[in-house]
Amino acid sequence: MFDGNYPRVIVAGLSGDSGKTVISCGLLKCFRGRGLSVSAFKKGPDYIDPAWLSLASGKPARNLDTYLMGFAPAKDSFLKYAGKDDVSVIEGNRGLFDGVDSSGTHSTAELAKLLQVPVIIVLNISKLTRTAAATVLGCVKFDPEVKIAGVILNHAANERHACVVKDAIEATTGVPVFGAIPRLSGKSILPSRHLGLIMPGEFQRSLCFLQEAKNVVEDNVDVAGIVEVAEKALPVEYGPSPVNDRTIREHGGEGNGLRIAYFKDESFSFYYPENLEMLEAAGAELIPISPSRGKLSGDMDALYIGGGFPEMNLTDLILNREMIAGVRESAENGLPIYAECGGLMYLARSIEWNGKEYSMSGVLPIKVSMDDRPQGHGYCEASVDRDNPFFRVGTAIKGHEFHYSKIADQDTGIETALSLSLSRGVGCFDKRDGLTYKNVFASYMHIHATSSPEWVNGMIKCASKYRASKKAANLALV
Prior knowledge:
β25 and β26 (about 440-445) form a beta hairpin. This protein starts with a strand and ends with a helix. It contains 15 helices and 26 strands. The longest helix is centred in the last third of the chain and has 25 residues, at about 455-475. It folds into two domains: about 1-235, 3-Layer(aba) Sandwich (Rossmann fold), CATH 3.40.50.300; about 245-475, Class I glutamine amidotransferase (GATase) domain (Rossmann fold), CATH 3.40.50.880. The chain is elongated. It is α/β, with parallel strands linked by helices. α1 packs parallel to α2 (about 50-55), α1 (about 20-35) crosses α8 (about 205-220) and α6 runs parallel beside α7.
């Protein structure tokens, strides 16, 4: 074990929707504009913010989730992917001290302590002046082990408003204010919908937004001062234990020659990079295909359908009848299919959205409907209690769910095909999840492969078994 210098900051807020993503993206672009190499991370379970951070940083942003991954693996992940970059930006989630319980377990603050990262607070000062100082002072005193290194004010009404708040905070707390972002016009704010921000691939102005975010930060924030804070971060102790090493040791070579397809387009974009990388580390070849414009090849050994927004692109999805028919036929023929959330919706008999019902692949005998309110939101804990293609009975799984859809109708007897019992979370219904049919497994739960290496093993073994059965069938025909 030895010490390593990793210049880094956490951009945190006191609540959700504080402006962390806009400022984090702006900082990343500013750092890159200064010739610095950057790494981006997102605290917690999230797909949307990391997509924007990835675009801003020019490389995949990684999630750091101590609940799903554990504290040591989360630290390993940061150290592995921060690498030799000049500076790393970690975007927090929710409020700085908000965790899974009243003690703030797994909060952004706890991650900051784990990684010894200085914290920059983004503070919404709408209709506030000196009370903002009391708020910052409370954060400083609340947990002295969390290093509050600075504040960026957001939604300043005018220059005088920003000056009054800045003077109050610095005089009261000694914490420097690195700038004040004025109230922005609508075109400079990221558009959102029911799950949060719109994904970059669906937003025509995504690159323009990032340039605007950079300009706003460059014009209103002491970027050099934040770089200095990052460079003064304490050295962090680490060892040579990269995240993927365990998977390579356990599964390396088992998937050689296997071809695993996965849906990848504007409808299905929710994939943790590690999930795909760990399949590749096991030897599998990954084949991205668009469910709206592509077709399923007959030489695939498994199909992975992640989450996303199929409800926003139903017309394009159902017009690709060849894909829908191919998925249905392949499922009947035993192709291993693993589906999460949006993937479950694609496999349904139909989706009801805005008063209309759309026929889907019909692999699963369920009807899914969209609601105006979240039907499941937060972390999940499940136990596998029935046979299924991917997980052994008795396996404990941690994940998360965030869905506005629900199973509104199902054929008689569908409950017998549910293989997960949830001690935390909502799932499909009645605290159960994991719909199974032949070699199909579909759930509302998203998992992170770092915390669920059993998933990698299940994917590889299912795909290997399916390939062997195809080979045997072909030999029988000779």
